[in-house]
Amino acid sequence: MGKIVIDPITRIEGHLKVEAMVEGGEVKEARSSGTLFRGFEIILRGRDPRDANRITQRICGVCPTSHSTAAALCLDSAFGLGGSIPDNGRLIRNLILGAAHIADHILHFYHLTALDYVDVTKVAKYDGNDTTLNSVKDFIERGELGPFVPRYEGDYRFPAEVDQQLVGHYIEALRMRRKAQEMCAIFAGKMPHNMSIVPGGVTEIPTVDKIASFLWRLNELRTFIDNVYLPDVLAAAEFYSDYFEIGAGCRNLLSYGGYELDGKDPDLTRRKRLFKQGTVSAELKLGTLDTGYITEEVKHSWYEDSTSGRKPTQGETMPKEGKSGAYSWIKSPRYDGRVYEVGPLARVMATYLAGDEKVKSIVDPALAKFKAGPEVMFSTLGRHLARAVSCKVVADTMPGWLLELKPGEPVYQEYEIPEESTGMGLVDAARGALGHWIEIKDKRIANYQCVVPSTWNMSPRDDKDQPGPLEQAITGTRIKDEANPFEIVRIVRSFDPCLACAIHVITPKGRILGKYRVS
Amino acid sequence: MANIKTEEYPVIWLQGATCTGCSVSVLNSVSPTIKNVLVDEVIPGKHVNLRFQATVMAGAGELVIKALEETWKAKKGGYVLVMEGAIPTKGDGAYGSIGEDKEGKPVSIDSRVENLGRDALAVIALGTCASFGGIPAAKPNPSECVSVGQLFKSRNVTTPLINVPGCPPHPDWFVGTVASVLLNGLPKEGELDEWSRPRAFYGQLIHENCPRRAYYDEQKFAKKLSDPGCLYELGCKGPVTHADCPLRMWNNGVNWCVACGGLCIGCAAPGFPDLVSPMYAKTADITLPNIGQRVV
């Protein structure tokens, strides 16, 4: 049996290593490990609870707004503010999160994913008048091709003309994602790492000029999403249609939903949200979310077995490096003891199955192009399509939120920090279900736990030896060329891994399992 | 166009204990755009040749580690190292590694920074983590993170170092620093302050240029977040933080922390976050105004 080791996996957030044991051209076993430890939950202990909103953003500079939103919901509930955030505050939080998700999804498709499918060097043969493409041609002629080369060679399938157009879109998308971050900063203060989202609401006051300035950036982004991003995902699906059958994974999905449409219920799991919360089964059945089913298991992680199977509120981190049978510092979050994938696929499918007309009106025609039903969404391409759908649904909803804003009315609700309390904040981050839990004692953080999307998706085997979602998605894949394992990196990147998030408490290094290496 | 010989400036951009926020911030650069930085001659006749940058580069695995090591050997003394993130030193690389060596053993981040740093023309520590340790080095510093400067001192590396702090740093601070090196060479005497920061960007306190300064002078303080007035009583760290945010503003000039009512948390300050915490409590024991003086 041979082993393919890819370390580092690039074009993701953070430090990830993937190992795949290959026999007869097929992956028999896969393992993912992170290679960096920072220890955020340890750093948070003893600090002022309000600082959690600023510090947890620094878990990840790609998705800080999601952490900030989860932290704000968590602190709202701990401070007894659940249900009493002013509408302006709720709407501006939605707008900040939405802008960040648009930036994030565009970044992911074009700048983190496209180079697995698009061959930049084909621009060398470009003979048109587009100044951008001609500048790329000059760059190629100068001969120093970093950071676009070296790369895996072989399976680039687009005809030159489509390829050249996509390179143009890659560069246009750099401008569009920047514009989305500017739009975000109008209410967030700055990006990355916003200053506006706080427990109690937000700090930025809406004014008509800010609303207009936000709206017209949004209009430009919506034009891009409709005419460039979504069509490009479908173009990729056309030329790489086998990826509707590659990388399916565990076929169980979990969504926390997101974007509060009505913030009045003190229990955040009962608030009406744009994206629905719930579970989705392989048979496409929608289930009700019960956070009591969430546990973290550690049989195959370097932690004391006595801490296995605990709920996040009772979470404890007792490292035991070198534990027999363990191979990762990432814990295994499980729902009702089973393996669940989180991400845009989960929130889009939960919302689709809840009968949401808007989501159906985008997903169904896209799938009809390929004469396929919603079951093909469990795939590498399905994840990319769901991400684009998620992006469009949010972008199309945001103008309504902007117009609901009432300049001059409050954005923020005052509070006292309680001596003792607990709180929970759940939101779908760009990459999926994100949960923050806090315990406050003496007005300080006694315990803070984050269960983040990439911990779900990149998790190792659990107490029942069930491999994690990414491991399942890679296992069984046929690798055409072991020296250029496109299949593995395409599957990995379809999850949009965020390792800084997954390993905020965890992970030293993956162990070496075998000697065979592909160079 | 490409017929005049272009000078190539090889750059290796390593990421340690980071959130990648510095990379994302640099992607937000407006003039030049990030496309201009990557593809075009960012200064006429000069091209930044980004040999290794894990967030954007096409390749993965051994392929890119080979590219990294070839640049290190072939361009010795001629490449610029950009370091993003702090450097974990605990457990001989157990808390942070980048790629593997020929025997398949993970290579620690600290040995990469030491070796690449020693042979670089210059090193830019990008962001507060690389410049001063930042959040990963906050108490109790679980992975024993250090800044580039601290690592270099402990390992006797004397390569010129420029700190560009900020959590994240403004894209102009990074692009401006790079442009200055391309145009004028390494910083001359007096261009960097005692924290090795370019005075051009970090020469003044936030407080000196703050649009809410008049409120401070008139002692009109905001009572709660989202109020008008000076945010000092709510915990603003503008009086102890050196950076030009109020003049430059963020994200194409649309906003910045104090303008959005969110106060300054001192993210570019050497003591961030421990010495500027709690973030939402009034800074104790400083005499104000303290204009033009260093407060550490």
SS element count, helices of chain A:
14
Widest beta sheet: strand line-up of chain A = 1-2-3
Q: Note the gap between the termini of chain B.
A: 49 Å
Structural class of chain B: alpha/beta
Order of helices and strands of chain A: EEEHHHHHHEEHEEEEEEEHHHEEEHHHH
Tally the helices of chain B.
11
Q: What is the CATH-assigned architecture of one domain in chain A?
A: Orthogonal Bundle
In helices, the fraction of residues of chain A equals 25-40%
CATH fold naming of the largest domain in chain B: Rossmann fold
* Total beta-strand segments of chain B: 9
Number of domains of chain B: 2
CATH classification, class level of the largest domain in chain B = Alpha Beta
Largest sheet of chain A: 3 strands, antiparallel
Mean pLDDT of chain A: 92
Description:
The complex is a heterodimer of chains A (about 525) and B (about 300). With about 525 residues, chain A is of the alpha+beta class. Chain A has a domain at about 50-250 and about 360-420: Cytochrome-c3 Hydrogenase, chain B. In chain A, about 40% of the residues lie in helices and about 15% in strands. Chain A has 14 helices and 15 strands. Chain A has helices at about 40-45, 50-55, 65-80, 85-115, 130-140, 160-190, 210-240, 345-355, 355-370, 380-405, 455, 470-475, 485-495, 500, and strands at about 1-5, 15-25, 25-35, 195-200, 200, 255, 260, 275, 280, 285, 295, 330-335, 420-430, 430-440, 445-450. In chain A, the strands form six sheets. Chain A has a three-stranded antiparallel β-sheet with strand order 1-2-3. In chain A, strands 6-9-10 form a three-stranded antiparallel β-sheet, with helices on one face. A three-stranded antiparallel β-sheet of chain A has the order 13-14-15. In chain A, strand 13 (about 420-430) and strand 14 (about 430-440) form a beta hairpin. The model of chain A is unreliable at about 505-519 (pLDDT under 50). Chain B is α/β, with parallel strands linked by helices and about 300 residues long. Chain B folds into two domains: about 5-200, 3-Layer(aba) Sandwich (Rossmann fold); about 205-295, Cytochrome-c3 hydrogenase, C-terminal domain (Cytochrome-c3 Hydrogenase, Chain A, domain 2, Irregular). Chain B is about 25% helix and about 15% strand. Chain B has eleven helices and nine strands. Chain B has helices at about 20-25, 35-40, 60-75, 110-120, 130, 150-155, 170-185, 200, 205-210, 215, 245-250; strands at about 5-15, 45-55, 80-85, 85-90, 95-100, 105-110, 120-125, 145, 160-165. Chain B has a five-stranded parallel β-sheet with strand order 2-1-3-7-9, with helices on both faces. In chain B, helix 1 packs across helix 7 (about 170-185). Classes of the chains: A alpha+beta (about 525), B alpha/beta (about 300). At the A-B interface, helix 1, helix 2, helix 4, helix 5 and helix 6 of A face strand 1, helix 1, helix 2, strand 2 and helix 3 of B.
